[in-house]
């Protein structure tokens, strides 16, 4: 007989972080950088653990250049050629440590880097503790968590499969950390507060697609429609992506992504500062001097409303 799990599972929108006593005087005192040593490969990584998703429109070299200035990571999409990579590596050697775990600038290193990045999306995402444990014990260092929360994802409506992201992160982080593994919360963040909640829930890294869409550094031209400036943003399993890269949607599967036009937001710098400023404030409200301490200081309260709707 099919089983119904009646335990309550929550999304970012269902909770708020409870403020706690804090001795921090100013947001500027908060340290958002983290250094990780990975369980299996023993590689290390230092930076602010926010990752631009490896999607066609946002995971670009242009994006990586700005992200690197803030020690943030960009998962470059897999459709650049080796020549594109060589040019990028020659012009922006400083970016290489923030687009791949480690790399030199020789040809073999570049090939390796592309194949590492290509392997990342193919690992597929999980949402349960047992899958996380299995993957870590099979040699994975970082597990991507999230099925169906993405802004341009239609998996939940097309397949009925999914898991509320906040609960997925809490449960998967617990399993991963028990084995000294790490997780990425992938998808579902709509505002800086959601990014803070994902870290509070135990995510080591947070991956963002929609929040970085619509910027100058994104691929594609600015579209003008009825006096409004827009940019195209689409899911990696959308009709648009499949037509572009695989000659259309294969008959045996449904497209599981949307194509949307989002307002053009200018340079990504302002968005980055907004997210980092929000995160520093979160840490101050809960008394975490470092991002690393945020999940230890986090108590979530279940709410029925995020904010006043008076002027919405
Ligand atoms: P967002 O930050 O936009 O909410 O979520 C970004 C994540 O959505 C990506 O990192 C990826 O895991 C997921 N995603 C991107 N494109 C698609 C798609 O076409 N279908 C599905 N199911 N997920 C997608």
TrEMBL record:
GMP binds at residues 186-188, 209-210, 235-237, 253-257. Residues 10-83, 102-306 form the IMP dehydrogenase/GMP reductase domain. Keywords: Metal-binding, NADP, Oxidoreductase, Potassium, Purine metabolism. SUPFAM superfamilies: Inosine monophosphate dehydrogenase (IMPDH). Its EC number is 1.7.1.7. The keyword Magnesium does not apply. One of its GO terms (biological process) is purine nucleotide metabolic process. One of its GO terms (molecular function) is metal ion binding. InterPro entries: Aldolase_TIM, GMP_reductase, GMPR, IMP_DH/GMP_Rdtase_CS, IMP_DH_GMPRt. K(+) binds at residues 148, 150, 153, 156. NADP(+) binds at residues 26-27, 78, 147-148, 236, 252-253, 281-284. It comes from the Eukaryota. It catalyses: IMP + NH4(+) + NADP(+) = GMP + NADPH + 2 H(+). The active site is at residues 153, 155. One of its GO terms (cellular component) is GMP reductase complex. CDD domains: IMPDH. The keyword NADP applies. Pfam families: IMPDH. Homotetramer. Belongs to the IMPDH/GMPR family. GuaC type 1 subfamily. Catalyzes the irreversible NADPH-dependent deamination of GMP to IMP. It functions in the conversion of nucleobase, nucleoside and nucleotide derivatives of G to A nucleotides, and in maintaining the intracellular balance of A and G nucleotides. This is GMP reductase. It comes from Equus caballus.
């Amino acid at each position: 007989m099919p089983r119904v799990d009646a335990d309550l599972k929550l999304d970012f929108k269902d909770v708020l972080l409870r403020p706690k006593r804090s001795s921090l005087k100013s947001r500027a005192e908060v340290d958002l950088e983290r250094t990780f040593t990975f369980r299996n490969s023993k590689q290390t990584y230092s930076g602010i653990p926010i990752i631009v998703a490896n999607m066609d429109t946002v995971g670009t070299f242009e994006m990586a250049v700005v992200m690197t200035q803030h020690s943030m990571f960009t998962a470059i999409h897999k459709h650049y050629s080796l020549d594109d990579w060589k040019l990028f590596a020659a012009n922006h050697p400083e970016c290489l440590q923030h687009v791949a775990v480690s790399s030199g600038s020789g040809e073999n290193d570049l090939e390796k880097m592309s194949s590492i990045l290509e392997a990342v999306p193919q690992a597929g995402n999980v949402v349960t503790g047992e899958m996380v444990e299995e993957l870590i014990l099979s040699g994975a260092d970082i597990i991507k968590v999230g099925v169906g929360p993405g802004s341009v994802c239609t998996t939940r409506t097309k397949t009925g499969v999914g898991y509320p992201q906040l609960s997925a992160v809490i449960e998967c982080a617990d399993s991963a950390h028990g084995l000294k593994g790490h997780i990425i919360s992938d998808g579902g963040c709509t505002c800086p507060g959601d990014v803070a909640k994902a870290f509070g829930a135990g995510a080591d890294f947070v991956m963002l697609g929609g929040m970085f869409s619509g910027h100058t550094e994104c691929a594609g031209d600015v579209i003008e429609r009825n006096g409004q400036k827009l940019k195209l943003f689409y899911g990696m399993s959308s009709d648009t992506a499949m037509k572009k890269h695989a000659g259309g949607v294969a008959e045996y599967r449904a497209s599981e992504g949307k194509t949307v036009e989002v307002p053009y937001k200018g340079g990504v710098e302002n968005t980055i500062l907004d997210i980092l400023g929000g995160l520093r404030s979160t840490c101050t409200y809960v008394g975490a001097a470092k991002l690393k301490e945020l999940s230890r200081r986090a108590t979530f309260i279940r709410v029925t409303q995020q904010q006043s709707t008076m002027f919405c």
